Inverse folding.
């Protein structure tokens, strides 16, 4: 090995240092460079950051909150020079909360356009020293003294309120509390934006450092290979070899070259095979993906169809439910009708039994009436026979009138007249009774016929 090309220890690390140790040493050096304060000659310590011009929107924001901050430039000038225009440490996220809010405002003057409205309430959110509190001077206009009160007047104006454009009264205490909440939210937004900016810078620096380290590693490996080749060539050139030795060395080098080429070819062949295999797998994966996409589309179509079928089934189910309710109502109505019909049938059966019993009674009465009529007809026949006998006797007596004296004749005629009158009265009474019985019998027959017709129907 040739040691004449080695550099001093200040320029490069020790020769026995490995690549990992060298990488760790460089990372530590890079981190130490990142942690130090970014003070350069181009940044003057006494140079003030220009205040952003207030646009009409900011002025309206300040006017609605009745806030004015004066001597902001004076407060910035009174800050220590080490805290103006300096960057925060990179990996100190926990220390960001300990830094005073004035430094946030000086560090990021252009992130938040309304930082002036936030600065007046930082003393309530972050505890500041007396000197920093004395830096801020509040100036409230005379026509707006009702909204912001000092600590001495809070006890006197606890219940004071203001009227909005809508006519609703709002307490000053609520307005102050709302302004505090808004200021706190704005401050948190400012801190988050600041952290995001720092993280973006860190990410850019890390990406750049990674790219540089990768390129440096690659260049270092190339230089190492180049140096090893040159050292071997120099070692071969410095040594005195014979022709046979040189031939043997050349042959060995040729063999090594061929072996190396063979190994390279094999590795390239393996790489090509792996590439083709990967391409095949990729094609298979693409095919599987297309098949899966087709299956997914089919499943989606089936899902849509199932959803439609499900909606139709739900509609049909609701219709069937409605029909079932209608049928249940009809069934209840039919049950009630059936019960009513059964009750009516029972009533009809009872009425039929009553009618049958009445028919039997009427038939018995009819039989009795017929028997009575037969008896009356028999009596009439006997009466007729007696009348014929009487007529025969009267004729016989008329023949004997000639011989009988006139007195006897008158007595007989009077007696005969009396008997004829009695017989006529009896016959008339019997005829009347017979007519009554016949009329009653006809009425009974009609009634029986009507009952039979109703029972048959």
């Amino acid at each position: 090995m040739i040691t004449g090309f080695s550099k001093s220890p200040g320029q490069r690390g020790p020769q026995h240092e490995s690549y990992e140790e060298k990488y760790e040493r460089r990372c530590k050096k890079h981190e130490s460079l990142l942690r130090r304060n970014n003070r350069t000659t181009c940044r003057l310590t006494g140079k003030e950051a220009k205040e952003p011009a207030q646009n009409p929107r900011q002025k309206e924001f300040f006017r609605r909150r009745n806030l004015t901050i004066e001597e902001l430039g004076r407060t910035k000038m009174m800050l220590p020079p080490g805290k103006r225009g300096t960057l925060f440490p990179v990996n100190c996220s926990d220390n960001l909360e300990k830094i005073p809010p004035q430094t946030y405002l000086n560090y990021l003057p252009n992130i938040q356009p309304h930082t002036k409205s936030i600065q007046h309430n930082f003393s309530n959110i972050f505890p500041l020293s007396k000197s920093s509190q004395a830096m801020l001077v509040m100036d409230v206009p005379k026509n707006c003294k009702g909204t912001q009160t000092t600590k001495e007047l809070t006890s006197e104006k606890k219940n004071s309120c203001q009227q909005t454009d809508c006519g609703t009264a709002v307490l000053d205490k609520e307005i102050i509390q709302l302004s505090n909440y808004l200021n706190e939210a704005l401050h948190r937004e400012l801190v988050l934006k600041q952290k995001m900016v720092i993280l973006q810078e860190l990410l850019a620096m890390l990406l750049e450092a990674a790219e540089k380290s990768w390129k440096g590693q690659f260049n270092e490996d190339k230089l190492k290979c180049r140096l090893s080749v040159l050292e071997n060539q120099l070692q071969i050139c410095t040594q005195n070899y014979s022709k046979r030795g040189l031939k043997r060395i050349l042959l060995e080098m040729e063999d090594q070259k061929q072996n190396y080429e063979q190994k390279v070819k094999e590795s390239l062949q393996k790489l090509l095979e792996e590439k083709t295999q990967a391409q095949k797998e990729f094609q298979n994966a693409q095919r599987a993906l297309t098949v899966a996409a087709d299956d997914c589309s089919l499943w989606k179509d089936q899902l849509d169809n199932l959803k439609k079928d499900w909606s139709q089934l739900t509609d049909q189910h609701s219709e069937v439910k409605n029909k079932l309710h209608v049928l249940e109502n009809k069934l209840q109505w039919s049950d009630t009708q059936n019960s009513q019909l059964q009750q009516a049938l029972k009533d009809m059966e009872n009425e039929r039994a009553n009618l049958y019993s009445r028919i039997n009674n009427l038939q018995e009465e009819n039989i009795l009436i017929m028997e009575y009529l037969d008896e009356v007809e028999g009596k009439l026949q006997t009466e007729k026979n007696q009348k014929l006998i009487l007529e025969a006797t009267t004729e016989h007596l008329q023949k004997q009138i000639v011989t009988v004296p006139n007195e006897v004749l008158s007595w007989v005629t009077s007696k005969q007249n009396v008997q004829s009158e009695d017989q006529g009265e009896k016959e008339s009474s019997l005829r009347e009774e017979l007519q009554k019985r016949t009329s009653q019998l006809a009425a009974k027959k009609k009634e029986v016929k009507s009952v039979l017709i109703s029972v048959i129907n």
